[in-house]
From TrEMBL:
InterPro entries for the chain: Cu-oxidase_2nd, Cu-oxidase_C, Cu-oxidase_fam, Cupredoxin
EC number: 1.10.3.2
The protein's name: laccase
Molecular function terms from GO: copper ion binding; hydroquinone:oxygen oxidoreductase activity
Catalysed reaction, written as an equation: 4 hydroquinone + O2 = 4 benzosemiquinone + 2 H2O
Family the UniProt entry places it in: Belongs to the multicopper oxidase family.
Domain of life of the organism encoding this protein: Eukaryota
GO cellular component: extracellular region
Organism for this UniProt entry: Sphagnurus paluster
Subcellular location: Secreted
């Protein structure tokens, strides 16, 4: 068993689990209790694509106790009876989500509908395709020569008022970015949590569930 203590740089209340499903961009810190008899044990990491088994030690590492023989473990895989569920994670401090404790209870609510355009092999958000400029956008904005709206394709820029609560809703089929948000509704769940939602930078909308939805909030600075 392992005890999760931090998610994406945010301290959380200790949560003991026997497995953690980690998606690209997510980070977890956990404490592993090495309280088993001295020996060798497999640590397995099963990917969702490619070679997904553990034959010959693939997708595996060895946890070897001091004084244990330098041989491959003989342990077998057991069922995950207590997997990590995002809805069970709770922040250690500053628990409540900003805004009013209702859906849409923010100063500004934005829906980000993500789609994929196969002919151009590109992602779009609310129909707008991101086209990176030759010179980084932030550098051009800082120079004062151009505004963000002039530099990026139409529909790519959302101007946010300062010191307001922003709620972003993302329908199924995308992943998140590097900003700590209060995840008030997790992927795979229909329940909203405004009291003590986990804060995370990376979050997941199940690719197989287009009706799924994730909602998150943060304070604009």
């Amino acid at each position: 068993m392992t005890t999760i203590i931090e998610v994406d740089g945010i301290n959380v209340q200790p949560l003991t689990v026997d497995s953690i499903q980690i998606f690209a961009g997510q980070r977890f810190s956990f404490v592993l209790n090495a309280d088993q008899p001295i020996g060798n044990y497999w640590v397995r990491a099963k990917p969702n694509i490619g070679t997904t088994d553990f034959t010959g030690g693939i997708n595996s590492a060895i946890l070897r106790y001091i004084r244990a023989a330098k041989v491959d473990p003989k342990t077998s895989q057991t069922l995950n009876n207590k997997p990590m569920l995002e809805t069970n994670l709770r922040p250690l401090t500053n628990a409540a989500a900003p805004g009013r404790p209702v859906a849409g209870g923010a100063d500004v609510s934005i829906n980000l509908a993500v789609s994929f355009d196969f002919p151009t092999f590109s992602f779009r958000i609310n129909g707008a395709k991101f086209v990176p400029p030759n010179v980084p956008v932030l550098l051009q904005i800082i120079s004062g020569a151009q505004t963000a709206q002039n530099l990026l394709p139409a529909g790519s820029v959302y101007t946010l008022p300062p010191n307001k609560v922003i709620e972003l809703t993302i329908p199924g089929e995308t992943i998140g970015g590097p900003h700590a948000f209060s995840v008030i509704r997790s992927a795979g769940s229909t329940t909203y949590n405004y009291v003590n939602p986990v804060s995370a930078e990376a979050f997941v909308i199940f690719l197989c569930k287009s009706i799924d939805e994730l909602s998150k909030r943060y304070n604009a600075m």
